[in-house]
Design a protein that fits this description.
Distance between the termini: 22 Å
Number of strands: 11
Number of domains: 1
Radius of gyration: 19 Å
Number of helices: 11
Order of helices and strands: EHEHEHEHHEEEHEHEHHEHEH
Largest sheet: 8 strands, parallel, barrel
Length: about 325
Amino acid sequence: MTYSMRAKFGLSLSNRAVVFGWATMDDLVRVAQRAEASGMFHSVWVGDNLLSKPRIDAIVALSAIAARTQQVKLGTICLASFPFRHPIVLAIQWASLDILSRGRTILAVCNGGSAQDGPQFAHELEVMGVKSEERVGRLIEGVTILRRLWSEARVTHQGRYFQFRDVELLPKPVQNPVPILIAVNPKGERVPPAVEERVMRRVAAYGDGWQTDATTPETFRRRWDMAREHAERLGRDPSKLESCIHLMVNINEKKETAFREAEEFLSLYYGTGRITHEQMETWLAYGSPQAVIEKIQPYLEAGCTMPVLRFVSRNFPAQVERAIREVLPALHAP
């Protein structure tokens, strides 16, 4: 099956880096403005968690960026708090952001961490009153509610997790529909085929695209083909769906220095020892500009429509400048 795709590039800004002192919110806004002015970035993204990985709230951060930019799309890298947020409240917040940005939002939602992913996730689930096994159901029901609230005049919903009658959601977002991506990455490269099928069928059924990370180009291609095939069976146009790979990047001719800087960042971000060397090699594009280009290119060939790059360095503004000058022109070339 062949589909025609053209890649757009996103910039991922670490709103968590504000917590561990590698950036200020002003830094993030300035770099977002530079990314827009360069013409090389289609979108700007921020991550999301509540208690498990504290950070500046994603919607607040995107609102600040929306107020200081004009054209770039604004998205979430896996809204991991989605199972904890009431869909009516989120619908109002996101519609307000869409109005503030004049229709530039992309909402990427995910299940968030499970209780088995670590004690911080188990504690977060307990504090928020959500069972680990409820996360997928809450995601599906929540996405369904958002779409209805944003498109229908009045909504009555009787679901497993949410029940309400005769809700008129105002304001409505500018976009109709608001694009919603499903962020998911089945654990490991060797998950059972039935699990992959189930997960990618969910993407095809409920999402306007797929967002993932820490995945080889080969696995990306297989899963993305799976999602598009399911979409076609469901009567959806596969060419209208987006696919997004979130990659860590450090540009430095000294590969060891690039790897070490990235390792320092990810240890602060996720906790020391939580990201293995093997995971780093999969997730990280590092070294010279040419090495970074060669790391990203196979994802484009695998059908990725929207690579999103996070520059993992204390001096991330300089990294973004190097990417604008020395990496992205080659990848944008026809």
